Amino acid sequence: MDKSPTVSVIIPTLADAARSESLKRAVKSIRASAHEAVKIIAVVNGNRFDTDVCTWLNRQPDIVFDQIETASSPVAQRRGRYLVDTEYFAFLDDDDEYLLGATDLKLDYLAQNPSCDLVVCNGFRNTSGHDNIFYHRLSDISDDPLAALFRENWLTSCNALFRTASISSEFFENPHPYAEWTWLAFRLAMAGKQLAALDEPGFRNNDTPGSLGKSNAYKAICFSLYERMLASSPPTHIAKTIRIRIGAAWHERSAEALMKGMWLVASQCHLRSLLQPGGLRYLAYSRRLLPGWPKV
Q1: pLDDT in tens, 119-178
Q2: Phi and psi at residue 93, to the nearest 5°
Q3: Coil, strand, or helix at residue 164?
Q4: Region class of 50: left (phi > 0), else alpha (psi between -120 and 50), else beta
Q5: DSSP annotation of 49
Q6: pLDDT per residue over 197-236, tens digit each?
């Protein structure tokens, strides 16, 4: 009998015709990332799906096909986690790809280190056909993952392998809009999960125009994300870092408002930035709010 897979890879997808080729590329990359068979869980979400794409997914012998009505990648991720029945699991967006041997790289580490709950790797961000290294400070996160998270978010939708027994479906409940991976990383670190980082490339993130990371909505969620983090009662030094981040976000919003001629909004945001730890660094900016001062 064939050996049962030990790894599941969850692909949340709209299964629309426009991403048919990238979806097939993602599936192909998963298969090439491991010597042993991998169970692929494709969760089609929303009503934009293309019948031919769904038919193709259904016909693949190594793909578990599932479908939900809600058009939401985080909801699809959660559904996929419910369907995991293997020892390890991972994720991959339908426009990204694993590099050759990437699953084996992470799997070997977890198999040899039973106390480790998840392992992350480095990769590439591909922009206009050019690969650039994704992380620049990945190797120094294991000692203090929580502090490292505020230097560089070490968790993405395509760089981690999780130990199923350690990372329950509960972690995927109540994701934060537009920042589900940052919030998940924060929750895992707060829960004391043991993390290992392999500074070797294992994925390619294909940067596409109009992605959520470039949207105004993505920028706007930082305040609610930081407040949610503070409500979790993080260590004192982390709470201070978060408040410094809040101050920087208010300063950025003030500068944007001023450029649009919204003087009152700019002033209010500036005052809020001053009230956060480290806010005095923005004091000199106050002169830009004076009548007649150039906006640039």
Answers
A1: 999 999 999 889 999 998 887 898 899 999 999 999 999 999 999 999 999 999 999 998
A2: -70, 155
A3: coil
A4: beta
A5: -
A6: 999 999 999 986 555 444 566 667 889 999 999 999 999 9
Encoding tokens for residue 90?
A: 């991972």
HEC assignment per residue over 236-284: HHHHHHHHHHHHHHHHHHHHHHHHCCCHHHHHHHHHHHHCCCCHHHHHH
Nearest to 45 by CA among 5, 14, 1: 14
For the whole model, what pTM was predicted? 0.91
**How far, in Å, are 219, 237, 243 from residue 275 at the CA level?**
21, 17, 10
Concatenated DSSP letters of 77-127: HHHHHHT--SSEEEE--TT-EEPTTHHHHHHHHHHH-TT--EEEEEEEEEE
Residues near 95 by Cβ (< 8 Å), separated by ≥ 6? 19, 22, 23, 26, 206, 208
As a whole number, the mean pLDDT across the chain is: 92
Q: State the pLDDT at residue 12.
A: 98
